[in-house]
Amino acid sequence: MKKFNEVKSLIASLEADADKFYNKGNSAAGTRVRKGMQDLKNLAQSIRLEVQESKNKETAKK
């Protein structure tokens, strides 16, 4: 659950930069959004692997 909360926090932290990029044309903010989205992708993949590992452990117990 800790990593899921990190995802929510990361998205919230990117909101201001997304606004600056899309509504104000700030290209540096776009770079920060792209980096944040890459971090989000990596974090999401980590969560996916963690969930799959947990499911596999439960299946092996049965």
TrEMBL record:
Superkingdom of source: Bacteria
- A UniProt-annotated Pfam family: Hc1
* One GO molecular-function entry: structural constituent of chromatin
Extract the InterPro entries matched here: Hc1
Functional description taken from the UniProt entry: Might have a role analogous to that of eukaryotic histone proteins.
The family classification in the record reads: Belongs to the histone H1/H5 family. HCT subfamily.
Q: What is this protein called?
A: Histone H1
Species annotation = Hufsiella arboris
Q: What is the lineage of its organism?
A: Bacteria, Pseudomonadati, Bacteroidota, Sphingobacteriia, Sphingobacteriales
